Fold this sequence. Notes:
Layout: H1 2-10, E1 26-32, E2 47-49, E3 61-62, E4 69-71, E5 77-79, E6 82-83, E7 92-94, E8 96-103, E9 110-119, E10 130-138, E11 152-157, E12 164-170, E13 185-190, E14 197-204, E15 214-219, E16 222-228, H2 229-232, H3 235-242, E17 246-254, E18 274-284
Parallel strand pairs: 3-7
Antiparallel strand pairs: 1-18, 2-8, 4-5, 5-18, 6-7, 8-17, 9-14, 9-18, 10-11, 10-17, 11-12, 12-13, 14-15, 15-16
This protein binds 2-acetamido-2-deoxy-beta-D-glucopyranose (NAG).
GO molecular function: hydrolase activity, hydrolyzing O-glycosyl compounds
Keywords: Signal
Organism: Thyridium curvatum
Amino acid sequence: MHALRSLLFFLPSLAAAWSAPNYSGYTLLWQDPFNGAGGSQPDTGTWNYITGLHVNNELQEYTTSSRNLQLSGGSTVQLVPWHDSSNPTQGWTSARIESKYTFTPDAGRITMAEAQIRFGDNPTNRKKGMWPAFWMLGDSIRHGTGWPACGEVDILEMVNGALTGYGTVHCGTSPGGPCNENNGIGGNTGVADQGWHTWRVMIDRRSNNWQSESITWFLDNNQYFQVTGSRVNNQAAWNALAHSPLFFILNVAVGGNWPGNPDSNTLDGYGSMMEVAYVATYRSN
Ligand SMILES: *[C@@H]1O[C@H](CO)[C@@H](O)[C@H](O)[C@H]1NC(C)=O
């Protein structure tokens, strides 16, 4: 086990370190490029490590162990699910981190939130139950507002290893409400492979009219879904999504309502990880 882990620490460092790109017409507001030594962990000044948290009938126990959450040494972070017999009740361990950083989309501007992400190369048909995600919640949930009134913007979710990326908003009240809970309002796109891709939402407030403002989802600069204020058709719900502080979440859930549980074919470990090269926000000039 130790030899294998050392090898895996070493391999990513062969690649050049990289961080969030610069985009013409935009100012980089914030990024975490996940720099640091292989086997060390994300900065606890930047990220809250989440433990426990049993929602959506998910099986995983989130831990703070570097087995589940580590910097690769090649300027990336790896969230690694393990099927762990030391945890007999749930059987799986994994990781979830939430940014202390929040940002508020500016009136009159475009704000972009994005990450570059890849997935471990276990075969897609050996990932039943895997539910990796890069998403945001309204910071008001940290100050007493419930879900989904706090607002949720899912930049990327994938389930069961399928090469489909999902983008979704949740808002208002549940069930039903302006965001059609508990499904939310969402779209999806095919993904060519499990390798590196850039996943982004663009929150466009240039119109200064909440009904014509929009949230747009991109895979590698290609738009695949858009929601406008008028589609949500509820100003308070739209304000929670597009006018209010948001924070980032990276996690790999295992099992639960959407993917269903892993089966005997499901593989754990680095081959089922989510690896993130950077998380960043930008504002139009
Ligand atoms: C982006 O621009 C800044 C300022 O010019 C520069 O320091 C940084 O290296 C650039 N980043 C990349 C990824 O090229």
